[in-house]
Write a structure and sequence with these properties.
The complex is a heterodimer of chains A (184) and B (499). Chain A has 184 residues and is an alpha+beta fold. Chain A has 4 helices and 9 strands; from the N terminus they run ααααβββββββββ. A two-stranded antiparallel ribbon of chain B has the order 1-2. The chains are: A alpha+beta (184), B mainly alpha (499).
Chain lengths: 184, 499
């Protein structure tokens, strides 16, 4: 469940959960005060104040919860939870418009650290699950000492698409590659 | 007759939208009207280019056209349309509220630099300079080295961008600051007196200060690069500025805060205008203090939230900056939450007069908030790894600009009688608002769903499901263009005010 929340579609669900109550409240107030009865409200001043505190409290709690629950998916924490001794390092060098990878074939259960650098302009290394889901994208800024790096454990066999998601010129869409993951 | 009035009168189709008479109010009306009119010319071209993108994909017309048109569309929508419309409306409001002239050399320079700069960039893009409106440094240079476009296209393109930046970072902010604090007041120009304590004025001053402060570093690194491209200074002198990480960070400190400045300014304008549309005639917000607090929160938190553009560089971006950017981005949303409260409490307390101007403003505000939710979601580090580089991000950039423009277009409806002595065509305006809002919602959620599914942004090869999203963008885009046409018609068919 929490895993789903922190995917692309999960992001859309959370977005809607925040937007829909806003839309309902906003439109009902506007409708009431523009069309049904636009005379000034008799609401006492304290009522506004308590509503304000309640509203800000709800917002703060919601923000705290979505961010706190996401900590597990932050790359530092993912690394801390991974047995680094078993990790396979894969070096990637991105140039317009291809990826050079030190290894492209893996097995289900392999934990891989993708270490990527760009040699010319901005690129990214984005990995797509065989079912089409975007697993992550890494921005590769040229000229940096530190490479971008993320750890990923393969859970399903199949062909994983690799794409560049930072616009890098007239053949940006052609900058892709594949990774093959076999059954154990 | 003044230059601005003459240009408006000579303009085919668009000129009729702003029929300004020669009168003593010209110093606050003429240039803003000319700028608003010109921004709508850019909007018309850029909207067709927007629609061309799904068309290019559906009919497989080639990646060359896609990258050309996305560059032209993004740049034209962001700068000579949305930004110029904001310049027009804010100059007009500053003029009429403070009793200062909204004309003169700085205004003329802003207008010329913005539009000539955008034209030069357009020519460069037509010559092959397909870098998108965020430039993606060092792509412009790498593109020359790899033969993607010519050196002359690069020089022309950067010259155009420099013109546009000077107008946004120097001439326009300085003019607003001069009007706010220095220039002489002329009683006959002051139509609706406001003090500098008014949230509308505070928002405007904050906005231009942000542009100045975050923009000057960008000008400082862009100028030596330009001088090098002109062959005036040697390459060794610019290495410090042309390092990708230096350029990208300074660029995004500006670009992020540019959007925030535009947001702060329009929220200030809403705070200033909404009370004038209340039913009880009190002309008051629920609370000026809370309104100003929201603006201050937006200002302070937005300054350092730009780190969210770089989360996915991990670990090259130290995690501490990532967390900081994450938290500050959510901080801006606290400012947003207070704004929602103030707007609704004002409507609740004082009632609302339902005019087209009010509905366009409220529609823009709703979209601004809906878009804000997508912005904070993608500003969370974990979600960012799943959404950065997808059309979720592109859709957010586009939607915040449409929301801000929709708000200014509502402001224009409101101030139109003041500017032109005419009233808009009410029934066309109401129809426009319906189509505008519905098609915008359609475009918005199509982008979000496509982004959630992992569809890459700025990618000239939509395949599989992505084409379905593309078709939907085509449908909603067509309706949006129709609503723009109705907007123009509501101004073109305006009627002279009777006294
Ligand atoms: C009129 C109908 C419109 C259509 C059909 C349309 C369509 C599109 C499409 C397909 C993209 C490219 C997505 C991608 O590949 O990343 C895009 C990007 C964009 N649009 Fe629009 N758009 C429209 C109106 C607008 C308006 C009114 C604005 C601003 C006020 C705007 C601002 C932008 C911006 C800033 C981008 C980002 C460009 C980039 O990522 O380089 N668009 N639009
Ligand atoms: Cu690339």
């Amino acid at each position: 469940m929490v895993d789903f929340i922190y995917t692309g579609w999960g992001a859309l669900v959370v977005t809607l959960l925040m937007q829909i109550p806003f839309l309902i409240i906003f439109f009902s107030i506007v409708n009431k005060k523009a069309f049904v009865d636009n005379t000034p409200a008799e609401t006492p001043a304290e009522k506004y104040t308590s509503t304000r505190y309640l509203w800000i409290a709800i917002v703060l709690i919601a923000f705290f919860v979505v961010n706190f629950a996401s900590v597990k998916y932050m790359p530092t924490v993912v690394e801390a939870n991974t047995k680094m001794a078993n990790v396979k390092d894969v070096d990637i060098s991105a140039t317009s418009w291809k990826f050079d990878m030190s290894e492209r074939n893996f097995q289900v259960g392999d934990t891989v650290r993708f270490i990527a650098k760009s040699e010319d302009t901005m690129h990214s290394f984005a990995l797509y699950h065989p079912d089409g889901e975007l697993l992550f994208t890494m921005m590769l800024m040229p000229g940096l000492e530190t490479a971008s790096a993320l750890v990923h454990t393969f859970d399903k066999p199949g062909i994983y698409m690799v794409r560049c998601l930072e616009y890098c010129g007239v053949n940006h869409h052609g900058m892709r590659s594949v990774i093959t993951v076999a059954e154990k | 007759m003044s230059v601005a009035n003459t240009l408006i009168q000579r303009a085919p189709f668009f000129g009729r939208m702003f029929q300004i008479q020669e009168n003593e109010l010209n110093p606050v009306n003429s240039w803003p009207a000319l700028m608003a009119m010109t921004s709508f010319v850019w909007l018309s071209i850029a909207a067709i280019l927007g629609l061309s993108m799904p068309a290019i994909q559906l009919f497989d017309l080639g990646s060359h056209w896609y990258y050309q048109n996305i560059t032209l569309h993004g740049a034209a929508m962001a700068f000579p349309f949305a930004f110029q419309l904001m310049v027009a409306m804010s100059l007009h409001r500053a003029g009429a509220c403070l009793g200062k002239r909204a004309d003169g050399i700085l205004v003329a320079l802003t207008y010329i630099l913005m539009n000539v700069g955008a034209l030069l960039l357009t020519v460069a893009v037509l010559m092959g300079f397909h870098v998108t409106y965020t430039v993606m440094f060092p792509l412009p240079v790498v593109g020359v080295m790899t033969g993607q476009w010519s050196m002359s296209a690069l020089v022309l393109g950067f010259t155009g961008i420099a013109f546009v930046l000077i107008s946004m970072i120097l001439t326009y902010p300085i003019k607003i600051l001069r009007m706010s604090f220095f220039e002489k007041k002329q009683e006959e120009l002051q139509l609706a007196e406001r003090s500098m304590k008014d949230p509308g004025m505070i928002g405007m001053v904050m906005g231009v200060l942000v542009l100045l402060v975050t923009g000057i570093p960008l000008l400082s690194i862009a100028s030596p690069i330009l001088l090098y491209l002109y062959g005036i200074i040697p390459a060794e002198w610019i290495a410090w500025a042309a390092t990708p990480v230096v350029f990208e960070f300074i660029f995004y400190i500006f670009a992020h805060n540019l959007m925030e400045a535009m947001a702060i300014m329009i929220i200030g304008a809403v705070y200033a205008t909404l009370p004038l549309c209340t039913a009880d005639g009190s002309r008051r917000l629920y609370s000026d203090k809370i309104a100003n607090l929201a603006l201050w929160i937006l200002l302070v938190t937005s300054l350092t939230s730009f780190f969210h553009h770089f989360f996915t560089m991990y670990p090259a971006l130290p995690s501490t900056f990532a967390y900081h950017g994450n938290i500050m981005s959510y901080g801006t949303a606290i400012g947003g939450a207070l704004t929602i409260f103030t707007i609704l409490a004002t409507i609740w307390k004082h009632g609302l007069v339902a005019t087209p101007a009010v509905f366009l403003i409220l529609g823009g505000f709703v979209m601004y908030i809906l878009d804000g939710v997508t912005a904070i979601v993608i500003s969370n580090v974990a979600w960012n790894f799943k959404l950065h580089g997808t059309v979720w991000a592109g859709g957010h950039a586009m939607s915040v600009l449409i929301a801000i423009s929709m708000l200014w277009m509502g402001m224009l409806y409101y101030h139109y009688p003041l500017m032109t002595n005419r009233t808009i065509d009410d029934s066309t305006a109401r129809k426009c608002i319906k189509y505008f809002f519905l098609s915008f919602v359609g475009l918005f959620y199509t982008f979000l769903a496509a982004g959630a599914s992992g569809m890459p942004r700025r990618n000239a090869n939509w395949e599989g499901d992505w084409l379905i999203y593309g078709a939907l963008l085509g449908v909603f885009g067509t309706i949006l263009i129709y609503s723009f046409y109705l907007y123009f018609a509501s101004l073109r068919n305006s009627k002279a005010l009777e006294f």
